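Design a sequence for this backbone.
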């Protein structure tokens, strides 16, 4: 369990505010009437089924999708007036891995330099990139093409790009998808460290149990906001069913909420289960006798029978 930053009531204004936001693409609404605010120092997990609008919500905070109604304010300014200075780690599957670029070049792309033509600004950017690559353990990969990296190394490269401009707000789109359990744990601990250094973190994920174990706040989406609060309160069978449209049993293990999958029993599993319960009727329920078994095809390609 990570240790959430204790929240003091400092009356600091929210770092992100969405007020009655309806957004989407080419006139099609993807998220409708979303209102939520994120305080400085929050660590938020965005959950919801595929297509529920998690990536769209992150892009909305970045000001890169159409806003049909409502307002998005980041650090006191509407994103339609000025693009916010947020670190962003996109969903890896949206990246063109054939683009000819090295790890170092990707990280340098994150340098927001006000005067990029001045050599000392470039030098400072390079130094920052080197420092952050060192911290994330990818300095030895600096000259590697991004296509030649493992999933975890790719994640860390894009995380370095997001961090190199020293953002107060970090938005990550599924930063733990496609990596092994140890790498996932490393990424979560790194994000926790950054959060303790004062960075506000918002990440989308499909890993409900990881959110339940690590994060203080979960926001559930399904075209609309379906829940927002501590995982212990949000992860109920009813809310998860409203969010995912599936019944998911919820249990508690040593104070941590665990969401399980309801097992399906197909074919042989079903037979085994029924036998365990004293039934021996599989044949009766699914008669697979000689007569209704598929006949093998006879291929006679000129072998002359
Ligand atoms: N660039 C785009 N142009 C048009 N429609 C888009 C675009 N990006 C996403 N959509 C659509 O918007 C809806 C929400 O997509 P979004 O990517 O936000 O979902 P998601 O919750 O992130 O899903 P996943 O878990 O699969 O990443 C989907 O119906 C998707 O097809
Ligand atoms: Mg997505």
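Sequence:
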């Amino acid at each position: 369990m990570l240790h959430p930053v204790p929240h003091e009531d400092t009356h600091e204004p929210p770092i992100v505010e969405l007020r009655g936001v309806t957004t989407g693409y080419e006139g099609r609404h993807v998220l409708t009437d979303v209102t939520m605010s994120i305080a400085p120092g929050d660590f938020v997990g965005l959950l919801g089924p595929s297509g529920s609008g998690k990536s769209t919500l992150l892009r909305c905070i970045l000001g890169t999708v159409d806003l049909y109604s409502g307002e998005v304010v980041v650090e006191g300014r509407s994103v339609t007036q000025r693009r916010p200075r947020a670190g962003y780690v996109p969903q890896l599957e949206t990246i063109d891995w054939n683009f000819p670029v090295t790890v170092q070049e990707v990280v340098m792309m994150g340098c927001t330099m006000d005067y990029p033509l001045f050599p000392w600004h470039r030098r400072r950017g390079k130094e920052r990139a080197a420092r952050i690559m060192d911290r994330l353990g990818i300095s030895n990969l600096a000259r590697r093409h991004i296509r030649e990296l493992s999933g975890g190394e790719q994640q860390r490269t894009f995380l370095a790009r997001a961090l190199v401009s020293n953002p107060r707000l970090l938005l990550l789109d599924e930063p733990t998808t496609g990596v092994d359990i140890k790498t996932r744990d490393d990424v979560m601990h790194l994000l926790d460290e950054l959060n303790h250094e004062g960075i506000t973190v918002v990440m989308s994920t499909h890993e409900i149990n990881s959110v339940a174990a690590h994060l203080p706040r979960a926001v559930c989406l399904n075209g609309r906001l379906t829940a927002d609060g501590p995982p212990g309160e949000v992860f109920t069978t009813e809310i998860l069913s409203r969010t995912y449209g599936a019944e998911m049993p919820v249990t508690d293990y040593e104070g941590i909420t665990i969401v399980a999958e309801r097992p399906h029993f197909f074919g042989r599993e079903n037979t085994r289960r029924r036998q365990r319960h004293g039934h021996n009727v599989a044949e009766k329920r699914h008669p697979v006798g000689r007569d209704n078994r598929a006949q093998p095809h006879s291929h006679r390609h000129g072998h002359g029978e």
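Residues 279-305 have pLDDT under 50 and may be disordered.
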